[in-house]
Write a structure and sequence with these properties.
Layout: E1 4-8, E2 18-23, H1 32-41, H2 43-50, E3 60-64, E4 72-77, H3 88-105, E5 110-113, H4 125-141, E6 148-153, H5 156-168
Parallel strand pairs: 1-6, 2-4, 2-5, 5-6
Antiparallel strand pairs: 3-4
Helix pairs in contact: 3-4, 4-5
Length: 171
């Protein structure tokens, strides 16, 4: 699908309308993607996040982008992987859907996602990539203001897995 790109790089440096932050339920920063976005955006992000009162797993919240190239940050809380029988796939898909819906509510044309839940939350990368791509394709098929969805992968392995998920998706 030509509106979906896979790149290797730093999510905090993407030149898009919104970047998605793989956040924890407090929205107050953490490690990995969450920490990198908070550091790059600056202390004003933490102030705004404090005012949001957190975010449940499977949902998303939006803040300004502050010092990022992106005007907006969409914070989404992915599931912690248990064993695949605790609704993890549905919760992860819900993260992508809710982030895409927020992007639509702001009439954004571009968004960049990290691989939500695959770091410290332990979601298997292969499975997460397939869930993400399916949720994105389903959203785009319904009609969307989004012209460009970027899957940003931190390393070569993640890039290959996400590229394969996009290439193998039934459009």
């Amino acid at each position: 699908m030509s509106r979906i790109e896979v790149v290797q790089g730093d999510i905090a440096r993407q030149d898009v309308d919104a970047v998605v932050n793989a956040a924890n339920t407090t929205l107050l920063g953490g490690g990995g993607v969450d920490g990198a976005i908070h550091r790059a955006a600056g202390p004003e992000l933490l102030e705004e996040c404090r005012s949001l009162g957190g975010c449940p797993t499977g949902e998303s919240r939006i803040t300004r982008g502050y010092k990022l190239a992106a005007r907006w940050i969409i914070h989404t809380v992915g599931p912690v992987w248990a064993d695949g029988t605790k609704g993890e796939d549905d919760l992860l898909a819900s993260c992508y859907r809710s982030a895409l819906e927020l992007a639509g509510s702001k009439r954004l044309t571009s968004i960049a996602f990290p691989s939500v839940s695959t770091g410290a939350f332990g979601f298997p990368m292969d499975r997460a990539a397939k869930v993400a791509v399916r949720a994105i394709i389903d959203h785009l098929k319904k009609g969307s203001t989004l012209e460009r969805v970027v899957l940003v992968c931190y390393d070569t392995s993640a890039f290959r897995i996400h590229r394969a998920a996009v290439d193998g998706a039934k459009l």
